[in-house]
Amino acid sequence: MSKILVTGGAGFIGSTLVDKLIAEGNEVIVIDNLFSGKKEYLNSAARFYEVDIISPDIKKIFQTEKFEIVYHLAAQMEVSKSMENPMFDLDVNLRGAFNILENCRQSGVKKLIFSSTGGAIYGESEERPTPESAPAYPVSFYGIHKLTFEKYLNCYYQVYGFDYTILRFANVYGPRQFKGGEAGVVSIFVDNAVENKTSIQYGDGLQTRDFVYIDDVVKALVAAKDVTYQGEINIGSGQESSLLDIRRDISRALGEKIKVQEKPGKPGEQRRSCLSYQRAQEILNWEPTVNLTEGIDRTITWAKHKNIPK
Ligand SMILES: NC(=O)c1ccc[n+]([C@@H]2O[C@H](COP(=O)([O-])OP(=O)(O)OC[C@H]3O[C@@H](n4cnc5c(N)ncnc54)[C@H](O)[C@@H]3O)[C@@H](O)[C@H]2O)c1
Question: pTM of the predicted model, to two decimals?
Fold first, then answer.
């Protein structure tokens, strides 16, 4: 069992990962400034530091705790916010990430696992499902900063021998998802439907995304700490689903048509996205197990009862 830091451990993916790592018997520490994370999601068995990843105080935490493994998940994760305020995105997603990385090196951390993005790195790829070898020309500052940090990791490996693995997530969905997030379309539609509110659909609804369920993503994150692979691994379902598919699945699960208002599409919005998970199969022995219908059912059950952990 290991001593593990999870940055962003009060967030959607981070808090679910923390629960799993603790259930497996690891000692887990969380760093989070609660920008979008929630105290209610923090596992009470985890030690919690409420601090910004950019802060110089991070150094003292690393020197005191001496982590073995670090999951770096803390991020500003909205593409549109990165376009409105590129400097803020750069501060959190690059300077903050670099602060974590440099402290890993200085304090003797064995490995860092980084949550990158498959949805915002490849752009409008010709090849779908898109493999990791596809050209990466992001069309957002969020994507650029994620990709740049991937390069920092590789540089640290080449120069210092520092071990890492990168997971490039598709659109993750499920219980605890932050509603402000753009990737949160399933959560937003589910929440509105359960509360009998109207959701807004931009565009014709035929735009596609690759939706991957939270529990599958956590399985991939856990597996990543035990493999030796200094590179990028896509974590997606390999399936393209449209917004209309999502509407239909939620309506089916609830037994009635959900309320949706249609508005014109947003300029520059990506039309299609879908990731190949072949490399994840080879390296992590991972494949998605929860399909969209099942995942939506589970998300609805959670949204109806909102079982927030103590
Ligand atoms: N959700 C998705 O579909 C998706 C897709 C691709 C990649 N990712 C990546 O996965 C990671 C987790 O995303 P999520 O969906 O759980 O989002 P989230 O917003 O729920 O979690 C991010 C966490 O980071 C914390 N945080 C933000 N800025 C911070 C700072 N400056 N200092 C300390 N903590 C800070 C937030 O409070 C939050 O708890 C992010 O790195 C995100 O970019 C998510």
Answer: 0.97
